[in-house]
Every structure is written in structure tokens, then in C-alpha cells.
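Appendix B, Record 12. Input sequence as logged:
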Amino acid sequence: MSEQINAAIQENELEEVNGGVNGIMVIPYVVQKGDTLASLAKKFNTTIAQIKKDNARVLKGSTKLTPGMILNIAKNSKK
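Logged structural output:
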């Protein structure tokens, strides 16, 4: 199921969560084996700091990602 969700995200098939504001949309992302904060920041055109801030409750101060963990990613759609 998480692979289907992530595939839909990559294909831009998911609706924007919270409506998206100023070119920013928040999307759920299910962590996969091998994902890092740096790789997710690059993939979604955001920063590690932003991911950590938006997911403080989930990460609880850690930078370790576990497969299956669901993160909210603020994706900057403006280039």
C-alpha cells in the first residue's frame, strides 16, 4: 500500500493537502528503506530543516527514518 501511495505522489495524482499556499503543498509520504532526510529534501525540493520542523512529533528529535513511517512533506512546486 505504501508503494502505491508513493507512486501516486511521484505521479502527482494526489490532491493537494490543505489546499496548497504560495506554491507549497503538504503531502503525506511513507518512508521507504534507504530514504534519508537529505534524499527526501532533494526529491521534494525542500530542506532537511523544514522536514524536521513539519514532523517534530513523528521524529521526536531523531533524524533516523524507519520504513513505514509517515511524514508530511511541504513540497515547493515553484522552481
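The chain has one domain: 2-76.
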